[in-house]
# Entry
Amino acid sequence: MFEPLGGWIDGRWITRTPHGTFDVRNPATGERLATLPVMADAETVAAIEAAERAWQIPAPLEARRAWLEGIRDRLLAHRETLARTITLENGKPLREARAEVEYAAGFFGFFATQLHRLEPETWPGPPPVTQWTVLHSPAGVVGLITPWNFPLAMLAKKFAAALAAGCAAVIKPALPTPLSAIALARLAEQSGVPPGRVNLLLGPPEPIGAVLCRHPAVRLISFTGSTAVGRRLLAATAPHVKRLALELGGHAPFLVFEDADLPAALDALIANKFRAGGQTCICTNRVYVHQSIAEPFLNALAHRVAQLRVGNGLDPQTDIGPLIHRAAFDKVAAHVRDALERGAQRLVGHDPPRPEHDWGAFYPPTVLSRVTTDMLVCREETFGPVVPVATFETEEDAIAAANNTPYGLAAYFFTRDPARARRCIARLRFGHIGWNTGSGPRPETPFGGMKQSGFGREGGWHGLLEFCEPQVVARAHG
# Structure
């Protein structure tokens, strides 16, 4: 269904370039899944020029609705094939991959219901202006740069909003996981999206990213990834005064107060922390438990985590797949080693052998207690299946510890006290907050970060307006 395997520019599949090829491998086994063409400056310019031509042909709202609904329906119809593709290139368990396909489809379905928000708004004014009109015009050509941890969903939330707004997209998926993006481009083609409205570039970040940053036709870049790369995008686009929407790093706290429902908190923590093997920007990175309940909480947590199975995501018994590559393994191992050297206690887990290759990076789920703020697990985003647990005495201590980070993407807290919940929500500086839940964002709600976790929102009708330029028309009769 997803053949041929290549880039997609102006309605043509590009399977060969003069820049060589790269391999896509299964991170669990090292199996070569595909050999794809490397794209560079010339292909990026061609994609941008195709998008510039395409978006200037007005697309009625009804046409956009048909495209969005067509892609949604095709995503759901091919759920199993798409889920297997995600698992093969990313490594996550197949049941998580199925949920990702459904999540991705939700963005296309949701934005198809929000197109009425783009209708012109008018109201009368005093003479000499007798009518004011606000138009929500497409931003134009947009660059969409997506990560490897949710290769289909992260692209869907950007592309669905851009398509709904009337933009034309130039997509750059992460190097390890381009197959999901190829599949989505194929489904867009099958849904009648005209040539040039969606273009797909494959290969290393450079020089594609550099061209997107400097080309005058690209008016907005939406990026999900590390804060370090986000800073580079800010610097590269500043001379060209481009708009950016940045979802950057996270360092999510998980607070468990003394009145919490412990079984519910444990269920939420397990589901939240180990999704995608802990390789998500909104998964819990540090747990703070009230000292009065720390012992029963840790005992129950250790028992639950010890039952989790690590393995190939295609195995239905697998709970945690491989880390994406050896560098990710090295970072997780370094964080655990640092914590142990500084006095942490490992309740669950062990030191696994370092993988010989850039695949097979399986790291066992790990629980650390006696964690302190000087440890790397409390200062940096681990991005792996490690649960560091610290204790606190007062609500004030818990809030201060949670906010003690330059990042502000997601936070979670558990309490039965509504008054305490209101205080926590008012003081936690995070864009997404879970009260008695570890749930992440939905297509219907805006998602994004505060502080160094970026700016801009994806999802919700707010995410649609990110891809629009308001134009005000003042009309005088005469």
